[in-house]
């Protein structure tokens, strides 16, 4: 036999037996065929439920299908899944307490490399030498410029790395990229930082979009959660092939719906854009550049289609095609519609007309307006007219409202705990925000139900103008704005700015001497959550020059006293939680 393997120690089989016991027992009971990838052709980090179901085959009435409903053709030495063909290395029967299961050990052919089971001594030396060469180029670049922001030097370094890696054998180049993934991704993330920051701002400002806004059938909603979960795994993969495989699984999951018609290109583009919009990944442009930069295969095929699809989805988002500007679901009353649509004439007529004998919104019989609501009343969603005016950025309408009893009600909160000031900051309307700030009783440090202040929300959505307005107003008005306030996750404004890559906002916050050593609930500083080495270095340099003492994260129950704790530049896995 040309190939032999002890299946009892195969990592895929062990993974199935340990993590999918019920599914494995069902396979034995129903006499399904278990396809086991050879041990030297898989990595443990690509195993998940979808991958397992892809490798279980049911046979019924002469037809064979995987548990993911893909048709399978079985011959003596090959399996064919759609356009993918794999070799059957050998067959074996696995006996269990419940019965037996037929197993096929399979191996996918690699058209771009020789069938070598493990690197030879010569290849290992070549890998070590190549890693050393690339590492020297990256290290020299980092040392050549203190803030390493010179675009020309960065491009020169990236070109040198790319040209060298592309000249290597595919197997060796993959090893080099895998071993130097963090350093290489750092370089590309710096290069794509501006594009990613703008993209993140668009994504954050459209985070409340719903599937129905895309005008797609609701049947697609059944597959979105699984597809989103798979897509968010892409940044954790270190090899281009693994990233593309993750994208391939995402697209496959989007096609597994109850929609009677096929998923056309336009729908796929809209759905993938929607998933990127909803994901917590903060460097999509860098991820795309990494794939394009280090995709060394000359045979693009399906890979080329996946790369083009991802690029089209990101470009679709850059155009801000999801932007919702027209008011929706506004109560059909003059007050709310006037505020939501910024109709100052209608509001002025309604609020200040002399025809009212008692007060502008009196409902007594003598005024003849029994259906007009009270001025400070809220609609079914808990919003007042002031909420609507500031949410849609109508500064003139906001000014009209603030000349009435609304000026004493600026702290009225909706069910989310958000005041009009929160929504002005969240949406990025600086004029509305400043009008509210100048009202007596407006608390700039007021928190919503998730612990977010107006500063948190302005930073989260990348609204630098609103961040400046809050900082400058508090200084001029001698109001003590809490720059270091922590939300429900323990994140400060600096945490949010660093996480989403808003370099200019980070610089602005550091000018106000925010505390860069605060730990959130996950024991992470702003440096830890940053995915951009440029921002990490910027914050670390500030801390070294005069950062304050270490503080405790929100609700963590312990007080951190390590005044000499050193900030690490290593980016740890970040358990990002959506902040709506």
UniProtKB/TrEMBL annotation:
The keyword Membrane does not apply. The keyword RNA-binding does not apply. ANK repeats lie at residues 381-403, 416-449, 450-471, 489-521. GO terms for cellular component: early endosome; late endosome; neuron projection; plasma membrane; transport vesicle; tubular endosome. One of its GO terms (molecular function) is guanyl-nucleotide exchange factor activity. It comes from the Eukaryota. Keywords: ANK repeat. Coiled coil: none annotated. It holds the Pfam family Ank_2. Residues 189-326 form the VPS9 domain. One of its GO terms (biological process) is early endosome to late endosome transport. This is VPS9 domain-containing protein. The lineage of its organism: Eukaryota, Metazoa, Ecdysozoa, Arthropoda, Crustacea.
